[in-house]
Amino acid sequence: MRALLAALPLILLATTGSALGQTPAGEIKGDAWVHTAESRRLVVANASVALPASVTGAAVFTGKLSNAPKDVRGKAPVVLFLHGSSGLGLAAIAEWQAWLAAQGLASFAPDSMGLPGRINYKSPIDKASYEKVHALRQSEVDIALEALQALPWADTGRVVLAGTSEGGVPVARHPGRFAGRMIFSWSCEDNYFVDAHKTHAIAEPVLNVISSADPFFSPANTWLGNPAAMGHCGAALKAHKAATIVLVPGAPHTLLNLPQPRQVVKAWLADLVGAGR
Predict the structure, then answer these.
(1) Nearest 5°: CA angle at 76, between 150 and 200?
(2) Which of 175, 165, 188 is nearest to 81 (CA)?
(3) Contact call for residues 206 and 244 (beta carbons, < 8 A)
(4) Of 20, 99, 154, 249, most Cβ neighbours within 10 A?
């Protein structure tokens, strides 16, 4: 699998140095940093779910968990996906989940915005506030894992933890064990977004996909805060024999649905959990 990916032209490991520039003014809104009992319920009930035809017995289902079919035909591997700071309103997420379902995978994306008054921000803000956000998001992994245990369609022995941007940080940090992990649009490096990257010593296969010119976490960001940054998780995962690092030249921050990432994700998931075969 890794040899196959290494042959793909979209894998690019060349990076450029960071330039100096003016740091924009950040902004914080909201005052809620920790989930309540009620918001934990809403995180699950309002989760975005996609179920493959093998589970529904009919067409692919996409929608909120609260509206998902209760009568299912079997189980499927699950991608537990953590959205970025824009929330589930980003159309690219539902599109990507529907695509995963077409490959035979279920997906479950908890709704972090279920917390009333949840903190939201315009970067850059102070690192202490970012770390409170990261703690909130990491708590949602455990909330979602607990919920999956009760879902009849979830093959809980084949859960892939995935996330993008803000949602990529808890994927890199979470101490649990999963079938694999996918980290999109996060570089696993020290920069303005974290006190320290604190990437977990991941034992399972991991796939990191990020733009070579990511506006937030690559050296293209003039206020990145790390002149030695490479813009991907290669340094954090350098000892990991089952890690695959993919840089997509010139891609935007949200790249889930670009052809190149889809090709790589499809092949990687087929190798990992047998999806799409």
Answers:
(1) 75
(2) 165
(3) yes
(4) 154
